[in-house]
Specification:
Elements (H helix, E strand, L loop, with lengths): L1 H8 L14 E8 L20 E5 L2 E5 L11 E4 L3 E8 L7 E4 L25 E7 L5 E7 L9 E7 L13 E10 L4 H11 L8 E4 L16 E4 L4 E8 L5 E6 L4 E6 L2 E8 L2 E3 L4 E7 L6 E9 L10 E8 L4 H4 L17 H8 L16 E12 L16 E6 L2 E3 L7 H7 L31 E3 L2 E4 L4 E8 L9 E4 L4 E8 L18 E2 L1 E3 L4 E8 L4 E7 L2 H6 L2 E6 L20
Parallel strand pairs: 4-9, 10-13, 12-20, 21-26, 23-24, 25-33
Antiparallel strand pairs: 1-5, 2-3, 5-7, 6-8, 8-9, 10-11, 13-18, 14-17, 14-19, 15-16, 15-18, 19-20, 21-22, 26-31, 27-30, 27-32, 28-29, 28-31, 32-33
Length: about 575
């Protein structure tokens, strides 16, 4: 009965019906809040074996996966569903799972960032994530939130509207998740471990991937290139997710226009474009109509590199295949797929032109009277060494790389998670004196004095009263290099009200803010050498991490956390922690 109901409602976890090789086993059930109050369950049948061998670029690696799948299973749910997800860790690393973009109202215990809202799930242990989808629909995703495990531990999380609620655009014939990733021809944890030791930047990836496959342009990859068959004339919905670690990407489909209809599970005013720019952590939904001559067309992605730093300059591809393409093309004898025109690697003008077109479908509620006006400098830094150029000081000029917000390089606690320490009243784990503005004002995007390049390491939180109206201006700095930093705020989505190049001017720039129909997002980047402003209401109590979604920067300390105090009564207060919450 339950299985039949699941099939009827098309709420499934894809690619899961067989004996599974895995390092983390996830049991998923859905409790759907439909009008008949019927409960819908889904469980995996599994055989538990350690890390799954995954072959890419001619070499096989024991890769950390969920249910033996790379990428992991796609979760398909509806707005209003309650998810119960039991994660059993059979890997050799501590791990947590994060449900990226889910608001987790009053429930930070299910959010997942390691040492922030929970202690990690240790090898051989388990933890059950329980949360409800509340007034959200669209494309999100899930991923590991411990060190660099999310390089391979990730998957799509698709939230359909409630039954009877249509999309605000014509129903597509089919929907395709397109997960853009990065692949290292070695253990990503070893890449991180080496960078941690030397203080230098981590090695860049060896390939980009589409749904786990590098594509035709890489060695030993052509036979496994992803292929998406389409019928002439049909319209499909591509749910594009940048699940890469450290690289913003341009994405396009040869000869086809893309109509953007949503970002970060928030609908947009539709607009048509030949490409999208998408940062790690972000999602973009686009409609594509198969209206070209029947043939094979590459969809492709390559780097948008906004900083003067090394990057992976390769290109990943998949193939859009018209089913009515000539037979010889289907056999691959004479047809080479048509390649799209992508913007150049450093084409900031195209990147900004794309993001500046995003708007909400209609007038939205934006906080107008601001209670907390925060100005956050975001950027890189260097830690000076007492023994420069030693094995542990291989960064620029014998230093170690760092990153910070308002000159505070965030340090995760070790004794307990921040949320557990706060709930338990444990002192000495964090302080609540995170600075609302930089400790020193300077020409943020100019020639910055070397005396300002070294941040202070600390575990500082910023406290917000429940219901506070918050504005944050993220200001890039030119320390080491200007760069687009995609900032992700857990537990919230926010209105992106303005952006610009250079230093933010609090006297003149707010007059240009869009307070009518700004886009809503959960991850937003600043223009390189510029700023971006967001607004939200602090209506979700708990401790919520905010960080750059370039994981090399996160590892260097480009993060902080908000402590949103309880409001009045149960519905404005953090719910009690689950009994199986992991302990440190």
């Amino acid at each position: 009965m339950a299985k039949k109901a699941m099939e009827t409602d098309n709420l499934t976890v894809k690619q899961s019906y067989y004996c599974l090789f895995l390092s983390i086993f996830v049991i998923i059930s859905f409790q759907a809040s439909f009008s008949d109050a019927e409960t819908h369950y889904h469980e995996f049948v599994v055989c538990v074996i350690q890390a799954k061998p995954v072959k890419r670029l001619c070499r096989t690696h024991n890769t950390i996966t969920v249910n033996g799948l790379f990428p992991g299973p796609t979760l398909e749910v509806r707005d209003g569903d309650t998810l119960v997800i039991k994660a059993i860790n059979n890997a050799r690393y501590n791990i947590t799972l994060h449900w990226h973009g889910i608001r987790q109202m009053r429930n930070p215990w299910a959010d997942g960032p390691d040492r922030v809202t929970q202690c990690p799930i240790q090898p051989g242990r388990s933890y059950t994530y329980r949360f409800t989808i509340e007034n959200q629909e669209g494309t999100l995703w899930w991923h590991a939130h411990s060190r660099w495990l999310r390089a391979t531990v990730y998957g799509a999380l698709i939230i359909y509207p409630k039954l009877g609620s249509p999309y605000p655009f014509s129903m597509p014939r089919r929907e395709i998740p397109v997960l853009l990733g990065e692949w290292w021809d070695r253990n990503p944890m070893d890449v991180l471990r080496l960078a941690d030791f030397t203080g230098a930047a981590p090695n860049v990836s060896d390939a980009y991937t589409i749904n786990g496959q590098p594509g035709d342009l890489y060695r030993c990859s052509k036979q496994e290139t992803m292929r998406f068959p389409v019928d002439s004339g049909e319209t499909i919905l591509l749910r594009v997710i940048n699940s890469g670690m450290n690289q913003e990407l341009f994405f396009a489909v040869a000869n086809h226009r893309l109509t953007v209809v949503a970002v970060d599970a928030a609908y947009t005013k539709p607009f048509t474009t030949s490409f999208i720019m998408i940062a790690p952590g972000q999602t973009t939904d686009v409609l594509l109509t198969a209206d070209q001559t029947p043939a094979h067309y590459y969809m492709a992605a390559h780097a948008y590199n906004s900083a003067n730093v090394p990057f992976d300059n390769t290109t990943t591809t998949a193939i859009l295949e018209y089913k009515s393409a000539p037979c010889n093309a289907k056999k691959g004898k004479s047809s080479i797929p048509i390649f799209p025109q992508l913007p150049g690697f450093n084409d900031t003008n195209s990147a900004i032109a794309f993001t500046s077109r995003l708007r909400s479908p209609s007038k939205v509620k934006v906080p107008l009277q601001i209670d907390e006006n925060l100005f956050f400098t975001v950027g890189l830094g260097l830690i000076n060494c007492t023994n420069p150029n030693s094995p542990r000081c291989q960064g620029p000029n014998g230093t170690r790389f760092a990153a910070s917000i308002n000159n505070v390089s965030f340090v995760l606690p070790t004794r307990n998670s921040l949320m557990q320490a706060y709930y338990q009243g444990q002192p000495g784990v964090f302080t609540t004196d995170f600075p609302p503005v930089p400790p020193v004002q300077f020409d943020y995007t100019g020639n910055v004095s070397r005396g300002l390049w070294q941040p202070v390491k600390a575990t500082k939180l910023y406290k917000l009263k429940f219901g506070a109206k918050v504005q944050i201006v993220y200001q890039d700095t030119s320390i080491i290099s200007v760069e687009d930093h995609p900032m992700h705020l857990h537990g919230y989505h926010f209105a992106v009200v303005g952006s610009g190049f250079g230093n933010f001017n609090p006297q003149t720039d707010p007059a240009k803010f869009n307070l009518i129909d700004p886009p809503y997002r959960n991850t937003i980047g600043n223009p390189p050498g510029g700023w971006v402003a967001i607004r939200f209401e602090a209506d979700n109590p708990g401790i919520w991490m905010m960080h750059c979604h370039l994981d090399s920067h996160l590892n260097w300390g480009l993060s902080m956390a908000f402590l949103v105090e309880n409001g009045v009564g149960k519905l404005q207060s953090v719910q009690p922690p689950p009994l199986d919450l992991p302990q440190c």
